[in-house]
Amino acid sequence: PAKAALLGLWHDTQETRVSDIPHIGRRYLEAASNEKVTADQVSAAHPAVKAGAQRIVEEYEHGDSLEVICAHDADKLECLVQAVEYREQGVANVQNWIDSSLAKLKTASAQALADAALNMTSIEWQKTYLP
């Protein structure tokens, strides 16, 4: 769990520089790769820190370990929950977002959490799954 969390954390650090470009936006924009953004972010760090950060991002982007799969699932699950919350607030046209996030989930635990998010209100989900 700690490694999956570390992978997910470093994956999201690039968004502080280039934002989280939605899938449709990627058709029109060319953003720097996550590896390049990370290299820039840690350029002044100690060489061991630089190498470690770059290795983590490289693993997230190209690895296939269970930790990488779980980190990817967490990222997609967060997108799905966000879309469900938007739908509850009356935002239209989020079903494709929900469907595409759901289709990318690989682990049984992520699929079970997604099922819960889709079959409860966000308040019920929070009461059940958050401390």
Order of helices and strands: HHHHHHHH
**Rg from alpha-carbon coordinates:** 16 Å
User: Helical segment tally?
Assistant: 8
Approximately how much beta-strand content do the residues carry? under 5%
Binned, the helix content reads over 70%
- The secondary-structure class comes to mainly alpha
| Total domain count | 2
Number of strands: 0
Unreliable stretches covering 5 or more consecutive residues? none
Distance between the termini: 18 Å
Give the biggest sheet.
none
Backbone shape: globular
Could you report the average pLDDT, rounded to the nearest whole number?
Answer: 91
Structure in a nutshell:
This protein has 131 residues and is mainly alpha-helical. The chain has helices at 2-13, 15-18, 34-41, 47-62, 66-88, 95-103, 108-119, 122-129. It is built from 8 helices and no strands.
Topology summary:
Layout: H1 2-13, H2 15-18, H3 34-41, H4 47-62, H5 66-88, H6 95-103, H7 108-119, H8 122-129
Plain-language structure description:
There is one protein chain. This protein has two domains: 2-63, no CATH class; 68-129, no CATH class. Helices cover 70% and strands 0% of the residues. It is built from eight helices and no strands. The longest helix is centred in the middle third of the chain and has 23 residues, at 66-88.
Main attributes of the structure:
single chain, 131 residues, mainly alpha
